[in-house]
Fold this sequence. Notes:
Number of helices: 0
Number of domains: 1
Oligomer: single chain
Number of strands: 17
Order of helices and strands: EEEEEEEEEEEEEEEEE
CATH class: Mainly Beta
Helix content: under 10%
Amino acid sequence: MTRPQPAIVTPGPVCISSAPSDAIVLFDGKDLSAWSKAGSDAPAGWSVKDGIVTIAAGSGNIATRQSFGDCQVHIEWMVPTELKCESQHGCNSGLFFHSRYEIQILNSSGNVTYADGMAGALYGQYPPMVNPCRPQGEWNTYDVVFRGPRFDASAGIVRTATVTLIFNGVLVQDDVELLGATAHGAHATYSSHPDTGPIMLQDHGDPLKFRNIWIRPLGNPQVAE
């Protein structure tokens, strides 16, 4: 079934903010020491210059060395103007939780693709409620609250994963329950895994850019002393 395209919304001005005091900075503009090549201990092979990390196409996905459970994540990304975007090709990446639950990163400004594969989609499952993507050459911001699934001793699902996504200051996913691991054209299912896992960025073969990446693990409320 073809899903309708979400309405286009013009976001407000770009606001650059630093990480809060209790955040773990995953990329500070200097190096990728918090990351490795996904699935290994090898250094992350993407390039860092002028405070920006750029995908080295073909070098593979990168993942955080540290694992996280429920969390709040901030990430800024940009599709360079020189890239030629055609649907899912030429300007594609993804932000993954536990290396299996993807929020799509894609140029969705003037680049039409299937609705559950556009920027802000929970890939292959839920389109964004609206489309606030900025044009190529401009920075986009994701602010995500991710709560992972829970499994019982028999590997049965007792709590599904949920995602809330604010995209360029606009709510596009509102505490949405994931159907399982994300994939294209496949029936989504859950398979048991630990409560924590890495954050992963996808190398889809296109040199997208990222900056200002931080995370706040979410647990019990913190009380002032």
